[in-house]
Amino acid sequence: MNDDLDAIQRVLADDVESFRRLVDRYQRPLLTLVRNLTPRDTDHEGVAQEVFLAAFRCLASFDPKRSAFSTWLFTIARNRCRNELARRRPVAGVELPESVDLRSPEREASEAELFRQLDAALDALPFEQRSAFVLSQLQGLSYEEVGRIEGVGVGTVKSRIARAREKLRCLLRHVAEPHS
Amino acid sequence: MNDELYDLWIQRANAEAPTDFADRVMDAVRREPLPSSKGVRVRLLSSPAVRVAACVLACLACLFRMAAVVAVFFVQ
Fold first, then answer.
1. Among partner residues B13, B16, B32, which is closest to A138 by beta-carbon distance?
2. What's the whole-model pTM score?
3. Which one of A7, A136, B37, B38 is CB 3.0 to 4.6 Å from A21, fit for a cystine?
4. Cα dist from A130 to A37, A48, A82, A85, A153, whole Å
């Protein structure tokens, strides 16, 4: 986006206040990404702020020929979230938890309860699947953009998203069954 | 997938930024050194052409050193 490049050039010419244009434009998608890639009790705003600061510090190394600024920023954010997750949960690849007990005695799970369980299911996905799913389904990025951020090919992105969707679909199917 | 529930969940997952979030980020940014102050070396190293040139130079230097070592055995 040309406006991004203009803001970046101004910041590199020591007009620090121009960085605000980038913050204003990307704060929402960045917070969405961070909130959905890290555990619920994480300081999401703190992490998002660190991502913006990291981008500011390394702004001179951003190469617009290689990627869009948003792709570059989301790559920093994705890696920062992965580090946060690894720091808190050293065992990777946790499967869907038993706690997603949609066959609980109540059965009439409220929407809020369902969303909480979907959140838990998202938390339980392996980081690569979760990251690809969030970038594609919540951020609305194309498979190519997700591939650039993840550092993998489009085929791998599609398969990761498909596997994540299948796990969430399974959860929703279990919810729908008691009501039908 | 139950599309209606799924769409609702997706909408809910999209975060709103607190109104003062950008201000807090900018306060932190102002405390940082200017990116341009460390710019020349970073910009040089971030250029693919410069990196390729540096690698080529390093390879040439390595080959030269290896040739110099091998040459010891063929001096006569």
1. B13
2. 0.72
3. A7
4. 7, 18, 11, 12, 16
* A26 contacts: CB under 8 Å, gap ≥ 6: A52, A70, A73
User: Do A7 and A18 form a contact (C-beta atoms < 8 A)?
Assistant: yes
User: Is residue B9 within 8 Å of residue A118, measured between CB atoms?
Assistant: yes
Q: Considering only alpha carbons, which residue of chain A is nearest residue B13?
A: A32
- Residues 6 or more apart from A53 whose CB is under 8 A from it? B25, B28, B29, B32
The mean pLDDT value for B32-60 works out to 80
Q: Point out the residue among B25, B36, B38 whose CB comes nearest to the CB of A49.
A: B25
Answer yes or no: are the C-beta atoms of A51 and B21 closer than 8 Å. Answer: no
Separation CA A28–CA A15 (nearest Å): 23
Distance separating alpha carbons of residues B38 and A58, to the nearest angstrom = 9
Q: Is B60 helix (H, G, I), strand (E, B) or coil?
A: helix
Shortest alpha-carbon distance between residue A151 and chain B (Å): 18
* Partner-chain residue, chosen from A45, A60, A173, that has the shortest CB–CB distance to B38: A60
Contact state of A56 with B35 under an 8 Å Cβ cutoff: yes
Partner-chain contact B35 A58, CB within 8 Å: yes
Full DSSP string of A36-101: HHS-TTS-HHHHHHHHHHHHHHTGGG--TTTS-HHHHHHHHHHHHHHHHHHHH--S--PPPPTT--
What was the ipTM of the complex prediction?
Answer: 0.75
Cα of A67 to nearest chain B Cα, Å: 13
